[in-house]
Specification:
Distance between the termini: 22 Å
Strand content: 5-15%
Structural class: alpha/beta
Helix content: 40-55%
Number of helices: 6
Order of helices and strands: EHHEHEEHEHH
Number of strands: 5
């Protein structure tokens, strides 16, 4: 896996802090102003994390009905290479999602009218996660 961008020193410091907290099993929240490079920092974090933990599945949840999930996915594709990625539909059809990143619009999975999984297939996406991701842990 290759990270194709260059981080500023403050971004490198924050990305390394994220890795350390994750290694210590601490809850992680990345909070920074618009334009500070959060997306690039998270892309670098994912790249580094997968180097040490290749069986991890990343679900990149994006709020709103706009194109933030697609925008994040495009940025990820631009600054990384060798890391498979997809959307919510590729996630639910992927037999082995380990080592991959899935960009998911939260509204697509959170509203009753925006169902990703039809009634009768599974109760909801969380049930799908628990039944299909938990066995990899």
């Amino acid at each position: 896996m290759i990270f194709n961008a260059t981080l500023y020193p403050f971004q490198t410091k924050h990305e390394e802090n994220l890795l350390a907290k994750c290694a210590d099993h601490e809850e992680i929240v990345l909070y920074a102003p618009a334009g500070s490079g959060k997306t690039v920092m998270v892309c670098k974090f994912i790249d580094d994390y997968l180097d040490e933990n290749p069986d991890t599945v990343f679900l990149w949840l994006c709020p709103g009905v706009g194109g933030l999930a697609k925008q994040s996915q495009d940025s990820f594709e631009e600054v990384t290479s060798g890391i498979p990625f997809g959307d919510v539909y590729s996630f639910i059809t992927e037999p082995d999602p380990r080592g991959q990143v899935f960009f998911i619009n939260w509204d697509k999975i959170n509203k009753k009218t925006n169902v990703v999984l039809c009634e009768g297939e599974h109760k909801d996406l969380m049930t799908f996660l628990l039944e299909n991701i938990m066995p990899f842990w």
